Please model this.
Amino acid sequence: MEGPLSKWTNMMKGWQLRFFVLDEHTLCLNYYTSKEKVRKDIKRGKIFLKGAIIGIDDTDDSTFTISVDQKTFHFRAGDADDRDRWARSLEETIYRPPTLNHRENVPR
Model:
């Protein structure tokens, strides 16, 4: 899944629009400052999702959190449906059993 979300930043003390790409293979949520930087793969940062917990904020209907490694990241989607799509995709990625690499698991 990919698309725009606002991310709370303590540096700027506010919401910053970022473009996010969920990488299901590396269990990372990569983020970029613009769509152009997504195309050029110039990341602003990444959040490692192994062991992460997704939370639905009750402050409004479009915010959610990712808690991992004793940090909590706050996000705001365009609306409740978009938030629910992101939360569902993130949870499915985090809790999906690892896929087997057939070459590594074939008896010799």
User: Anything to note?
Assistant: Residues 100-108 have pLDDT under 50 and may be disordered. Strands lie at 2-9, 14-23, 28-32, 45-48, 53-56, 63-68, 71-76. The first helix runs from residue 35 to 40.
